[in-house]
Every structure is written in C-alpha cells, then in structure tokens.
Design brief:
It is a single chain. By secondary structure, this protein is mainly beta. It contains 5 helices and 54 strands. The longest helix is centred in the last third of the chain and has 9 residues. The C terminus is likely disordered.
Length: about 525
Amino acid sequence: MRPADRRPHVILGSIIVTTLIHNVTELQDMSSDLAGDYELANDIDCTGFVWTPIHGTFTGSLDGKTYLITNLSKTTSLVTDNMGLMFEVNDGNIQNIHLVNCTAHFYNLATGQKFVGGICGENDGTIIACYTTGSISTAKNGINGGVCGINYGTISRCYSSANVGGGGATVGRVSTVGGLVGCNLGTINNCYARGHITTSNGLRNYAGGLVGQNGPGTGTISHSYSTGAVTDGVLLPLGTIMGFTAWDLIPSGANCFWDTITSGLSGSAGLETGKTTAEMKTLTTFTSAGWDFTTIWAISPSYNDGYPNLEGIGWLPTVTTGAATGITDSDAVLNGQLVDDGGLPCQVQFEWGYDTSYGNTTPLVSAGIGPFSAPLAGLTRYTIYHYRAVAINAHGTSYGADVEFDTLIGPPTVETDAASNLLMTSANLNGTLSDDGGDIACQARFNYGTTTALGTTTPWQPVLIRQAFSESLTFLIPGTIYYFRAESQNSVGSGNGSILSIQTAGLPNRAYSISRRKL
C-alpha cells in the first residue's frame, strides 16, 4: 500500500494536514483516523472491493473535490452496523462527494433498528453539495434514505436519484423510507430526490418522496422537492405513503414541492405543495416561494429533465444511439438522443469508423436533452460503418450502444485514357473503371464521333474495378478528327469519362509523287 499522501495548508494561522485519497483501500483506511481531514485526489472505482462502512463517529472532514466514487457496494445480514460510505458523521463535515451506483442492502433483519444511507447511516454533522445514485434498502426496521438514514445535523444542496426501499417493521419498531433521508430530526435545505421509493409488508411503513418521517421534537425542511414514484406493496393502516413526507410530527416544508404526476400521489403529511409535472418545470413555481435561482438553483429544459437543478452539482449524462438516416452511397446522418444531461452543461458527438475501434469523431457540440445528429460525407460505397453516440459533462463521458449501417451501391466512375495504335483508318480507344460503385456487375463501352456530340457507341463489355479496357475502331476516315469518351454502368446508374480527341493520318499526296517521277 502506498504511504499516506499528506498535504499541509494553513487556515487562520493553524496548520491543517490533509490526507489525499487515491484508491478504495486508502478510502477504507479513513477508519484508522476518524478525526482526520481528507480529500479525494481522483475518481475511485470500488468494483470488486468488499466495503465496510467507515466505522465509528467521524468528526473530521472529507472533501470529494467533485471526483466520483463509483460502484461502492455492501450487502449484509449483520444487525450491529449502520450502512453507507460512513457509519456515522458526528460533528464532521462531508462535501462534494459524488457517489455513483452505490449499493447498500440489509436483509433478514429481525429486531434491530438500522440506519442506511448512501453517504452515511446517521448524520450529526454537515453534508453539503453531495449526491448519490444506486440502490438503498433493508428487509425490516430500516430508516433508509438516498443520502442519509437518519439526520440530526444539516444536509444542504444535496440530491439523490437512488432507489430506496424498506421492508416493514417488527413490534415496537417503524420503517421510514425517504428519497433523501429516512428520518429527519435536523435541517434539510435546498435538496431534491428523484429516485423510486418502495416499501413492502406494509406494517408501520412510512415512505415519502423526500423524507419518510420528519420529527419529533426538531426537524425542518425548506426549499426542496421530490419527483420519484412512491409505492407500497401491502399498505396497512399503521403505515402511510406520501408524495413528499409520510409522517410529519413538526409540520414543515411550506416552500417545498413534489410532483403529483410522477409520484402517483396527491397528498403529503407536511405543509409542502403538490404540483403537476408541467408546474414543477416552471420557474415561477419556485421563485414565488422564495427559492434562490441566482446562486443555488438553475432551471432549463435542457438539464435534469427540465426540473430545477443545483448549480455546479451533477452526474454522468445518459445517451443513446439511434438509427442512421439519409444513407446514400457516400453520405449518412448519424442520430442520437441525450436522455439525461447529468444536471450540467453537456456536449455530444459521435465516434465512427469501419469497426468498433472507430477512429473518427464528429465535432463536439453543446446539446440539451433531446435528439441530436451529425452528417457524414465522403464515405466509401457499399461499406459497413460502425458508430456510437457520446455525451460529455464535467463528471465524465457516457457512450451509447454501437450501431452499424451500410452505404449504398452508387453509380460507377470511369476514366477516358489516351488512344493508342493510331493509323489512317483505325485506332484503339482505352479506358479504366475507377470505381464500380460497389456493384461487381459493371460494364463499359466507348462513345465516339466526328463532333463532341459523339453519336456512335461500341458494344458493352464486362469490366471490374480498376481494370483497363479497350476497343478497336476500324474503317475510320483518314485525316479526320474523332472525339471519344469512356462510359460505364451498373445496376443503379452510369458514369462518363472526359471527352478526348484523335486525328487519323491523312492519305499520301499522289499528284506530288507523280510529278517528281516525270521530272
């Protein structure tokens, strides 16, 4: 294992030593110093690593610097641990952590109450400018949220698109599930959740689009929204599902909203307001409630599927490759669809070539959510081409599937070559088939005559690409200028070479010859 990379810096006269984290092993080793200050030095892929949540009460700081932590996964039946990137944040500070495709699942729980979230099971500190995607769930007794299971501290400018699930509760327990937080006893502001919220078994289940339970005692939610579907497999009287908050013991959220269409629910337990999808994508819905669209929020049809997005916080874009159109023997139009821009400005292009190594790209252009295309020209006739759509934002690059198309057969091209064996009454006309247009059933001939209108043709003859061909002309008139050109045709069209000319040799001057002998 590499030695710790420690970087000192000065804050208000104090020397703070920050440890840089380069890989998943170093990330796991944060458990050895829960009061340390850490920064990610690069993206970290956790694929194949058996993750153990950073155990204990974290009182230090972790700054992700907007790098990605991908494929963090933990599935267990143990009843002693909270679940997440961290066990518990206690007076610590977490910021700019972008947790992509995380998986946290507890199963076969019998009695213990478990706190499960993407960032941490329990937060008593501050979580700022973080997001999670993936899947969070428990079998029973779960307090589950996309970012945090239970929150006593502050969560600000965060979002989650993780799917969050819960499995009911045993006697004396509850199961609360929220898109962002399972149970909030602290402060949530300027956040949103877009994941699918599900519960099963029904007993004492509380599921909300943003928060499962708010309170008792404390708990405030402001300037936040949710859009995810909220469903329950077996809803019993001791539980409820709501669009935004399912169980609000301290009514909050007067300036918060949820999408009544996408959630499938028209009610919520707090003071938040349900809006249609169209209203949720309208700026005045939020500005009239005092939301800050100068420094915190932004809204555009091109980003986050048209819903408000947090300035500077995003995720990888999603792009698909469509079928090519306008295909000819030398041209085509490549098509793609930007499904999700990742909440950030996005650029798109296509990679293309003769195989899946591609080797060529179209120009990068800015794009919003929706279709995009790029024309190709100068392609080879009757050839298979591969291509895929590409989308790029500040978080990285995403690719659509590989798609192929065939250019069509085109008309042939032919060259008229110089004539040979020129005599008084005969000559050989020559040509070359430059391109058969992709059709091997190609033939060629010559047109000739005493004017550029030509008018006389030779018989067709089969010819292959890059093959020279010729025709002998006889019974020509001595001393005459003839014009000629090569012509070719295949199943879709024809092509002509340039017009050249020859002049046959003239007859000898007999009068002059006789007079010389007479002399």
